[in-house]
Amino acid sequence: MTIYEGKTGVNVKQLVRNIADQYPFEPQQAALVELIANSLDAKATVIEINFDNDKGILEVIDNGLGMDKRQFLEYHDLAATTKERGSGIGFAGQGAKLALNFCSRIITETQSASYKGYSEWQLQGNDAPYRIHEDETLALNHLGSKTTLYLDDKSRTFYRKERIEQMLVEHYFPLLDEELLKVYTGKAPILIDERRALITYRPIYEKGLKFIVNGKQMIRKSLESILEKQKEASVTVSTRAKARGFFGLAKDEIEENLQGIAICTFGKVIDRTWFRKEPREKQRITGWIEAPYLVEAVTTDKCRFQRGNKTWEGFFRKVQTEFSNWLEEIGLTEKPVEKKADFSNLEKEINSILRNLPELAFFGFRSQRDVAISDEDGEQRSLGEGTQKVEGTKGGETEGEGTPIFPGPETGEAATLELGPEASAMPKPRVIRGGIRIELDERPDKEEEAWFDGTTIILNESHPAYKRAEAQRLLNYHVMKSVSFSLIEFTLDKDPEPSYHKAFQLAQRFFRLWGEQ
Fold it and tell me: In CATH, what class is 3-159?
C-alpha cells in the first residue's frame, strides 16, 4: 500500500469560501449538486445518496467509471481540474472542496479499471492536508466513487430527507420524471419539428439511470400529466436539431421549483426562465428544454448561462419568440389586446436618444433590407416577417406580419427577421422599423413600474406612480424615466462588472440628451 500526503501551500480556508461564494445558494446545497454532477459525468447508472442524522454523515455513491491515479491526485488540487469547459456539467473535486467549508472530515473512495484508492481530507487552520491510500478502499467494492461527508452541527440540521429530495428536483428534475427520463435513456422517441417527425436520437444516459435516496428509488410522476395545454418547442442550428422540449400550462398552481421553463444540459437544470416575459398565471406555467450544446455557455459554477455569450443569446432569442407566440395562442400574453395610448412621438424621441448613447445604441437601431412584398405577378418567395410598413406594388399600403425579435448582443446589429410562408412577391428595399416600442398593461399584481420583454417596454398602467403622473399631466416624464431605467437594468444585467455608478451615469446622460432635444 502506498500513502501520499499533501498540502496545498495556499490559504485554503479563504479559497474554499471564495469557491462557495460563486454559487447562488448555500455551500451545503452546492456540494451535493456538484457531487451528483460528477457522478453523471462519470457515466453512472445508479447514484445513491444516504444521510444519517444520528451519525452526521452524508454519502454520495455511484457506479461510474471511477478515477485513475492522475485524476485522483488532481481531485485534491485546488488549482487543477480534470475537465475542460464544455465537456461536462461538473468539475472533478468541486463538491468535496465546497464541503471543506462545513465538514470536519471528507473521505473519498474511487475504483477504476486502472486504479483503486481512498483519501482523507480536512480543513486545519488555513490549510487542507490530505492523505491518499492506494491499492485499497474502505467500503467501495465496485467501479465508481464514494464520497463521505462528516458534517458539522449546522449541516446536520441542513440536510434532511425532504430537503435532499427538494434539491434534487430543483436541479435534476428531468432525470427524476418518469417520462422525461425515457428521453435521456433512449426509451422514448424525440419530436423535433412542426410536422412531428420522429428522428433517431442518441440518448445521453443510454445504459439507464436511477437515483436512490436512503435506500429507495426516487422517481416522480410525469410533469406532462398535470398539463392542460402543451406545445412542443425545438431549436435548429444550421438545419440540425440542437434542442427540444415543451411549454406547458398546468391545471392548477404548481410547486415553486417547477414554475418557469427549465433550460437543461445533460439533465441538469441550469436556468429557469420566462424569457423576459411577464405572463399572467405564472404559477401555472412550466416547461422543459434539453439543450446539450449550451454546456459551452454555462458559467464556471455551472448554475447559470454566461450573459452575452453568442451561443446562449442565439438560443434565447429563438425560444423567446416561440414562447411569446405560445402565450398569445393560449391568451396569457402580457401584452394588451389593443394599444390604449399613442406613444409614437415618444418612441421616436427615445430611439433618437438611444442612437446617441453607445451603450444603448442597438436598442434604437433601424435597418434597410430587401423585403418580399406581395405581388401576384412576382416570383415565389418567402415573405419576410417583422414590423414593416411599405407601399405595395399594386397600390395602397401593406403591413408585414410577425413579431420583431430583440437584436443580438453586438452593438448596431439589426433585429432578426424570420421568414414567413412562400407567396408570390417581389423584393423591394425598405427601411425595417427598429427601436423601442412602448405599450400599456394593467398588472396590479406587479410592483414594477415597467419591464422590458426583449422587444417592448411594457408600462404598468395599474402602478400608483403611473396613475399619479397621469393625473398631474407628467406622463411623458414618467414614461421617459420608466423606459430608461428598464433598458439600463437590462443592459447592466449583461455587464460582467455592473455597478450603481454605471447605472447612475447612464441615466444622467439619457436625461441630458432628452433635455437638449
Answer: alpha beta
Q: What is the CATH number of domain 189-203+220-330?
A: 3.30.230
Q: Quick one: how far is CA 148 from the chain centroid?
A: 31
- Cell 435532499 locates to 164
Contact 171, 70 (CB under 8 A): no
Single-letter amino acid code for the residue at 395: G
User: Per-residue pLDDT averaged across 114-126, rounded?
Assistant: 91
1-31 pLDDT, tens per residue? 566 666 655 677 888 888 888 888 899 999 9
For 221, phi and psi rounded to 5 degrees?
A: -60, 145
* Residues 105/121, Cβ–Cβ less than 8 Å: yes
- Do the strands 190-191 and 198-199 form a parallel or antiparallel pair, or are they unpaired? antiparallel
Extract the C-alpha cell encoding 134: 492506494
SS3 label, residue 52: strand
Cα 510-516-517 angle, rounded to 5 deg: 90
**Dist. CA 25–CA 270, nearest whole Å:** 13
Tell me the C-alpha distance between 469 and 476, whole Å: 8
Rounded to whole angstroms, how far apart are CA atoms 51 and 239?
47
Task: Please tell me the distance from the alpha carbon of residue 362 to that of residue 411, in angstroms, as a whole number.
Answer: 5
CA distance 28 to 113: 31
For 50-88, the pLDDT digits (tens) are 999 999 999 999 999 999 999 998 888 876 544 444 456
Grid coordinates belonging to 121: 481530507
Q: Which of 507, 33, 490 is nearest to 276 (CA)?
A: 490
β-sheet bridge partners, residue 298: 305
- pLDDT tens-digit map of 220-244: 999 999 999 999 998 887 777 889 9
Q: What DSSP designation does 404 have?
A: -
Q: 270-283: buried (b, 16+ CB within 10 Å) or exposed (e) per residue?
A: bbbbbbbbbbeebe
Q: How far apart are CA 203 and CA 200, in angstroms?
A: 9
Q: Are 432 and 417 in contact (CB under 8 A)?
A: yes
Count of C-beta atoms within a 10 Å radius of residue 161: 13
3-state class (DSSP) for residue 301? coil
Cα separation, 60 vs 55, whole angstroms: 15
At residue 430, does pLDDT exceed 70?
no
Range(s) within the chain of domains with CATH label 3.30.230: 189-203+220-330
Measured distance CA(355)–CA(208) in Å, rounded: 54
Task: Tell me the whole-structure pTM to 2 decimals.
Answer: 0.69
Least Cα distance to 302 among 33, 79, 59, 75 occurs for 33
In DSSP notation, 379-400 reads: EEEEEEPSS-EEE-TTSSEEE-
